[in-house]
């Protein structure tokens, strides 16, 4: 804990640290005690950065343990299932994915067959930057470099479906922003045959908005992937959902830069990572920048069109250190406009407030989340946008002071929603407080 903290900040810091202690399972951290009882990939990356300020050894274990689930082709699954948790505690559990039947997937544990935004290299480098023991930290980087490089190799080899250097996602869950209105159209275009299972519409472990036909479509996409044995050829040629998302790719880009630095520190060749970062940078601008609306949008690879709705994902490329001035200025203008900053005093909501899809209470369709605001804060800080960064910093802390470490928040009055004691909300507050 930094000695510079005020009394009020110290109390907040302690409360956040307590959440992480309570959600620690012995080798990793659950996103939330009841709702998400396994280990999620990008959650662990966010969580490790808070742990770095609190329990350094756990921060490293958190990141390493998520890589236990990595497949031999480099795929880093978005869920690593805890075998001590009842199989029905979370749906979809291991029975939907059947990962152990797939050659190259781990034999000794169950995983999903999808990935999530590849934030891990960025997290690993941040752990190193805030380490008090440089030598030990270099050993950690040396250990985690090969799986990180394999993760990026997988994305470049098997997910560059558009051929320009971006990684495509094949399921809304891969975006991390599951029911974002961005995915409404591609999901609606999906054929939904009669279900082969009886959905439990009353399931308590599904967040609001995920119960119903939308969730059936999520499951349908998984069944298609599983039937194709998660084969890269299926993703390229047949899978009905394929999109290039600006937030996913901005995280990929920031992590590619981080990986180049890690390569240098650990005596590997940084050049391939730098070249990859350059390609992602170019492709983001060439393919996802929409000059007319002055922001980034997701590209539906199945229709070849940019998806019209503007969400918090549009600001993801603030994480690009080489973002050209005009694009940077346009993003800041949009961020501070009534469409995103209309919610006075609270951080950025997940959807354009003026869009017909906006819903202040529904998960990723409007509410404010700590992780997206932390990413924007990091991007703004990197560009020296101190006013924007300070706004995001102050309003994020205000939110958790008011409502605690909730999963998400009403963007107009800050009311907490979803699960309590949500790990990344706590962890990123530790990172902000420093
Ligand atoms: C599906 C764990 C995860 C986060 C995602 C968030 C939510 C899962 C769900 O919870 O997704 O992966 O059941 O809705 O959308 O970003 O990683 O916290």
TrEMBL record:
<dbReference type="GO" id="GO:0004573">
    <property type="term" value="F:Glc3Man9GlcNAc2 oligosaccharide glucosidase activity"/>
</dbReference>
<protein>
    <recommendedName>
        <fullName>Mannosylglycerate hydrolase MGH1-like glycoside hydrolase domain-containing protein</fullName>
    </recommendedName>
</protein>
<keyword id="KW-0378">Hydrolase</keyword>
<comment type="similarity">
    <text>Belongs to the glycosyl hydrolase 63 family.</text>
</comment>
<dbReference type="Pfam" id="PF22422">
    <property type="entry name" value="MGH1-like_GH"/>
</dbReference>
<dbReference type="InterPro" id="IPR054491">
    <property type="entry name" value="MGH1-like_GH"/>
</dbReference>
<dbReference type="GO" id="GO:0009311">
    <property type="term" value="P:oligosaccharide metabolic process"/>
</dbReference>
<feature type="domain" description="Mannosylglycerate hydrolase MGH1-like glycoside hydrolase">
    <location>
        <begin position="36"/>
        <end position="425"/>
    </location>
</feature>
<keyword id="KW-0326">Glycosidase</keyword>
<dbReference type="InterPro" id="IPR004888">
    <property type="entry name" value="Glycoside_hydrolase_63"/>
</dbReference>
<dbReference type="GO" id="GO:0006487">
    <property type="term" value="P:protein N-linked glycosylation"/>
</dbReference>
<dbReference type="InterPro" id="IPR012341">
    <property type="entry name" value="6hp_glycosidase-like_sf"/>
</dbReference>
<dbReference type="InterPro" id="IPR008928">
    <property type="entry name" value="6-hairpin_glycosidase_sf"/>
</dbReference>
């Amino acid at each position: 804990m930094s000695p510079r903290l005020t009394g009020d900040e110290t109390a907040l810091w302690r409360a956040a640290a307590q959440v992480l202690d309570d959600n620690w399972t012995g080798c990793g951290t659950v996103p939330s005690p009841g709702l998400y009882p396994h280990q999620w990939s990008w959650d662990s990356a966010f969580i490790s950065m808070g742990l770095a300020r609190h329990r350094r050894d756990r921060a490293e274990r958190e990141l390493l343990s998520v890589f236990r689930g990595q497949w031999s082709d480099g795929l880093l699954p978005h869920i690593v299932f805890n075998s001590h948790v009842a199989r029905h505690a979370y749906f979809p559990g291991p029975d939907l994915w059947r990962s152990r039947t797939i050659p190259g997937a781990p034999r000794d544990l169950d995983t999903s067959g999808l990935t999530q935004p590849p934030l891990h290299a960025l997290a690993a480098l941040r752990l190193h930057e805030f380490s008090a023991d440089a030598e030990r930290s270099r050993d950690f980087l040396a250990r985690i470099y090969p799986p990180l490089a394999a993760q990026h190799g997988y994305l470049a080899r098997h997910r560059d479906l558009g051929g320009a250097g971006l990684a495509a996602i094949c399921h809304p869950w891969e975006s991390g922003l599951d029911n974002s209105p961005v995915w409404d159209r591609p999901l609606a275009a999906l054929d939904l045959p009669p279900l082969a299972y009886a959905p439990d519409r009353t399931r308590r472990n599904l967040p609001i908005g995920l119960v119903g036909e939308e969730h059936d479509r999520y499951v349908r996409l998984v069944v298609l992937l599983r039937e194709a044995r998660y084969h890269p050829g299926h993703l390229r040629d047949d899978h009905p959902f394929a999109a290039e998302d600006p937030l996913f790719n901005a995280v990929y880009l920031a992590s590619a830069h981080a990986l180049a630095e890690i390569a240098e520190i650990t005596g590997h060749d940084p050049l391939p990572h730098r070249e990859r970062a350059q390609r992602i940078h170019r492709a983001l601008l060439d393919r996802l920048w929409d000059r007319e609306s002055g922001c980034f949008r997701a590209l539906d690879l199945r229709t070849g069109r940019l998806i019209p709705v503007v969400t918090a994902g549009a600001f993801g490329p603030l994480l690009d250190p080489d973002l050209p001035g005009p694009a940077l200025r346009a993003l800041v203008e949009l961020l501070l406009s009534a469409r995103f900053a209309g919610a006075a005093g609270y951080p950025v909501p997940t959807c354009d407030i003026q869009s017909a899809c906006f819903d202040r209470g529904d998960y990723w369709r409007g509410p404010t989340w700590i992780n997206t605001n932390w990413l924007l804060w990091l991007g703004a800080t990197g560009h020296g946008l101190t006013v924007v960064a300070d706004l995001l910093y102050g309003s994020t802390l205000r939110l958790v002071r008011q409502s605690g470490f909730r999963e998400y928040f009403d963007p107009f009055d800050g009311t907490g929603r979803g699960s309590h004691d949500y790990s990344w909300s706590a962890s990123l507050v530790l990172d902000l407080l420093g």
